Amino acid sequence: MVLSNFSNLTLTNPLELNRWFWLAYVDAYEWVELPNVLGMSTYADGGILASKPYVSGGNYIHKMGNYCQNCHYQIKEKTGDRACPFNYLYWNFVDRHRDAFDENGRVSLMTRKFDEKSPTEQQAIRDSAERFIANLPRGLAK
């Protein structure tokens, strides 16, 4: 789910993520991958299989496992070069998809939380996310 979260937050094409899973895992069968990747984990089906987008910030990931124990990013920092990218990527995703979040009672609170941030912090979130996403290598080797 961490990979799907990262994919969502970095605006990765869900079909490319699905293809990556097929190539990366020997047990990635189409009948499993399509509903799990396109439906549940990337919300690419618009909510048919899952009731909300599966996205989270760094703190949730930190609490759910040991993924962060050797990471050089700082979980408590929200923007900037040392901040955990999941933090600003998450808030950027919420801002980008605010219409869908506002319509969904399970996540509508998050757009209000974003709006409570100062205009300076909101812009820092957008800038950090844009810089991170722009610097990601894209595409699979053929």
Structure description:
It is a single chain. By secondary structure, the protein is mainly alpha-helical. 56% of the residues lie in helices and 0% in strands. Helix 2 (14-24) packs antiparallel against helix 3 and helix 5 (85-96) crosses helix 8 (119-134). The longest helix is centred in the last third of the chain and has 16 residues, at 119-134. The mean pLDDT is 87.
Number of helices: 8
N-C termini distance: 25 Å
* CATH 2nd-level architecture of the largest domain: Orthogonal Bundle
Number of domains: 2
Share of helix among residues? 55-70%
Assigned CATH superfamily of the largest domain: Deoxyribodipyrimidine photolyase-related
**Order of SSEs:** HHHHHHHH
Globular, elongated, flat, extended or rod-shaped: what is the shape?
A: globular
> Which structural class matches the secondary elements?
mainly alpha
Strand tally: 0
Major β-sheet annotation? none
Question: What is the CATH domain class of the largest domain?
Answer: Mainly Alpha
Mean pLDDT: 87
